[in-house]
Amino acid sequence: MTRTLIRGGLVITAADEVHADVLIEGGRIAALAAHDSDTAAGWTADTVIDATDRYVIPGGVDAHTHMEMPFGGTVASDTFETGTRAAAWGGTTTIVDFAIQQVGGSLRAGLDAWHAKADARCAIDYAFHMIVADVNEPVLKEMDLLVEEGVTSFKLFMAYPGVFYSDDGRILRAMQRAAANGGLIMTHAENGIAIDVLVQQALAAGKTDPRYHGEVRHALLEAEATHRAIQLARVAGAPLYVVHVSAQQAVAELITARDQGLPVFGETCPQYLFLSTDNLAEPGFEGSKYVCSTPLRPREHQAALWQGLRTDDLQVVSTDHCPFCFTGQKDIGVGDFSKIPNGLPGVENRMDLLHQAVLDGHLTRRRWIEIACATPARMFGLYPRKGTLAPGADADVVVYDPHAGQVLSAQTHHMNVDYSAYEGRRITGRAQTVLSRGVPVIQDGAYVGRAGHGQYVPRGTCQFLG
Asked: For position 466, what pLDDT does the model report?
């Protein structure tokens, strides 16, 4: 059994920071011990990694990605192979992607289709949520079966009428089922019926540019849907996880619910923390690069998101990674913003942008690890196998250089997309060496992984519930 020893680094988890050596054996963390201890001095290993002046952190857990997702007549440009490779470059070692039920089809058929896409192609470990597009009695029964086999979260859309949309009655029925079977309901909280009215009115008035995508998806319609989802969850006695929260009014709804002691959780994404409607308004068709839903908001919303992360009213930062190339995909929507494929690339940038947030004073180092590694693992039943560095955990370990400068750019990123949402942004910090279950995927800044190393991970239920 091979042994790897990581020496001399500052180990950072959500719980503490300690100067410690990390011993890895058989793909798992075997032990940690202080650098200068007799215990660490006695360790030997086949491979020794020098982490002097580096952080040693758990691999990131990105709980919201869309590899190879069909949308608006095209398909997200990252495959499970390219997307998980890019994730590893960015220090993420586990993704939770979304399998999609087709309307009229079964959950099982949707899940099987996603297994077929991912099997033997991933560079890092992966799991699945289930998008429920068609709530009916057989589907509700299937939810029970999926929870038993480790697909323990179900996403319902209050947006996209005619595609993924579920009305309040269907959402309530799914929530009731989840309350009984231990599953976690995730909602895309926007009032899609009202948004469609505003879209048609904007287009009729000749407002076709990308910036109008943000204007018609009004912040109040995100807040209203968030409020409604919370009340439906209360009626059902179910926990609720609201994805990609972008508006300060929606954060306020989550704060109110959590102050009442409700099991309501919120996620935001780097694009809402670092980008704004200024990007959507870039000249020409450049704004289309930033079209995603929920949309980017005016810059003043960012303060509420950062505050929510500090106060734990928002618990997780995921990417909603759903890339479409500027040329050949985003340009489907030239002359009609409603046809622009919704989604941004970001799976490679999340850990580094959040480290920059530490340097900028928005977060502590431990909170960085909490929102990017530990809490998503707990939220979705992967902890303590993922999300921490402790004996018995998978040896998903990142040796992170907090001093390395980099310029984010499509010229140097590894995502399969022809632009960067953060083009030209200078940040400090990057992953130097990345281990997945003890096996190097990134080594001293070079990719040494392989498609098929990543394994499917069945999940337990949400660990924040009683």
From this structure: 66
